[in-house]
Amino acid sequence: MAEHTNGNTPDLTPTVIADHVDIVYRVNGTGAGRGSATAALNRILRRKKAEKAAGVRTVHAVRDVSFVAYKGEAIGLIGTNGSGKSTLLKAVAGLLPVENGRIYTGGQPSLLGVNAALMNDLTGERNVHLGGLAMGMSREQVKERYQEIVDFSGINEKGDFITLPMRTYSSGMAARLRFSIAAAKDHDVLLIDEALATGDRKFQKRSEERIRELRKEAGTVFLVSHSNKSIRDTCDRVLWLERGELRMDGPTEDVMKEYEAFTGDAKPKPKPKPKAAAKPAEPTVAQPS
């Protein structure tokens, strides 16, 4: 594991500390589906209490991960599917317990988006108010920033969609509205999971600019994304998780080069074009005097 180094570290304020974190999922009932229901019942009756516990499968989603995040950083979380990125993000937000180790946070982490507060049968307008309140804004703040949120999301560019129920939105429209609500508030720690993958390049650029503003104004931004370009455009540091382990932590370009070599996404350098052979000089014919 490469250590993250920053020449200004002594002057920076830590916002998130992960100290040897393990996160384990337990899946019930695995291995109990063989044979008939009667045979299964007989097996259950014969087993001892300890043997029953063997039917619970444990999945080690995150293994011994340690890092320190500082105020003003934008940190990308990368890794192949199932590497533990989203799981780690949820644990930092306090939504998942850790099996071993500790996670310390300065301020309140906010996980994008506000899915629990957004209701499909309510209009986008109503959901902006509910989502803003869920993110910790006052009613006055939501009212002041309402139009800014709608304009930022861009969902009204092709019609008055904000007055329609959320169930009529595409997944991309809903994701853009969630990001816009979350981005309207300043955060101590903002955790973003694949939000920039939605929408067109125009919306992605607005989102990246807003992330840079959030870093300047207050806290730390974590971004999970499968878009290498978004990571490069937005983050100055990257944590690479693979099979739940922190494989590398360092400056964006250093980590991305290693990751792309690992996944085979590295672009081969163009071969230099061969120089054209010099044409032989044409013989000169002496003119008669």
The main pleated sheet reads as:
6 strands, mixed
For the biggest β-sheet, the strand order reads 5-6-7-3-8-9
Rg for CA atoms: 27 Å
Ranges where pLDDT stays below 50 over 5 or more residues in a row are 5-11
Helical stretch tally: 9
What is the oligomer described by this structure? single chain
Q: Would you tell me the structural class of the helices and strands?
A: alpha/beta
Mean pLDDT level: 80
Number of β-strand runs: 9
Helix content: 25-40%
Distance between the termini: 83 Å
Shape: globular
Reading the helices and strands in chain order gives EHHEEHEEHHHEHEHEEH
| Fraction in beta strands | 15-25%
Describe the structure.
- This protein has helices spanning 37-46, 49-53, 85-92, 124-134, 139-153, 171-183, 201-217, 228-234, 252-263, and strands at 14-27, 57-70, 74-78, 100-105, 109-112, 189-193, 220-224, 237-242, 245-251.
- The chain is of the alpha/beta class and 289 residues long.
- The protein is globular.
